[in-house]
Amino acid sequence: MRRGLALLVLLALGLPALAVSAEALFDQVAQVLDQGPWEARLQGRIVAPGGDVQEADLIVKTLPAEQIVRIEFQKPDALADNYVVITPDKVYNYLFLTNQVVVYPRAKARIEGLGFDLSRMGDLRKLGEEGEVVWDAPQEVRFRKRPAWHVVGRAPDPDASGFGRVEVWIDREAKRPLRTAFYDAEGRALSDLEWTAFQVARFTADDLVAFPPDAEWIEKK
Q: What pTM was estimated for this model as a whole?
């Protein structure tokens, strides 16, 4: 009864009754995304190795139970038909034009042809837990007419993190990402991608970790 009365008082005063932390919000998102295989289309812009910003169009496929993510590139044109497979211990870059698979240890993850490591989007909770990002409190906003949370995180050490600021928009009802943007220490966009066409999928680890049988393999240490 007392709790209900306090809630009514807060609402009457126009104050938020229930605040949510960034960590709690990311936990809610993880619970949704970890339920089973899914895929989404990401569109926007991303920086190239030379610093130029290019249009990006990607298909992301995820198998949460196995912690496997596959990123298929449609744009930029230089990366069309390339794809990347991220596993708990390795990152596999398939290069279409040369028919090569370049493999990096997960700790030294690199995505060929990009000036920013897209794998950093994989677990926003982990960035905070490891101290790479200090998250502000989520703010209630609208994103393309949908109720959303907007969360801003700042990197204490941009040189070590590879970025200075990250901003995330999350659907308040579906608890799914709507947009993820990373910026360097000077505020220039490194990656700004909107999540669209999200859907539950059916695939296995063998479907995602698959490469042409005649591809050349190159191991990086």
A: 0.82
